[in-house]
Structure formats: structure tokens, C-alpha cells
Amino acid sequence: MAIPFAENSTEQWTVELIKNSQLRQAVLVNVEQAGLSKMQQATRNIITET
User: Fold this and answer.
1) What confidence score (pLDDT) does residue 5 get?
2) 14-33 b/e with 16+ CB inside 10 Å = b?
3) Taxonomically, which superkingdom (predicted)?
4) Which residues contact 6 (CB under 8 A, 6 or more apart)?
5) Is this prediction's pTM over 0.85?
6) What does the alpha-carbon distance between residue 46 and residue 1 come to, in Å, rounded to a whole number?
7) What is the pLDDT tens value at each position of the chain, 50 positions in all?
8) Is residue 1 within 8 Å of residue 16, measured between CB atoms?
């Protein structure tokens, strides 16, 4: 990640850092939910097969 050299560079960099961590958190949540729905689907498949 590039650090911008503006007058308010520290503040701007902090804002970018927060945005990045929020984005990362959102991605992790989506991945987790996708994983859970796949597991639920697999469980349903097993239940219907037996």
C-alpha cells in the first residue's frame, strides 16, 4: 500500500487503513457465509441420500 504524501498524509493514511480493514472484514464474512452455505447444502444432500 502506497503512503500518500499530502499535508494530511497521516490522517489520510489512517482513513485508508480503516477502509482496508473494513473491506477485509467484509470479505472474510462473505467467505465464511459462503462456506457455511456449502456445508449446509452438503449436509442436506447427505440427509436426502440416506
Assistant:
1) 56
2) eeeeeeeeeeeeeeeeeeee
3) Bacteria
4) 12
5) no
6) 45
7) 555 555 667 777 788 888 888 888 988 888 888 888 888 899 988 888 76
8) yes
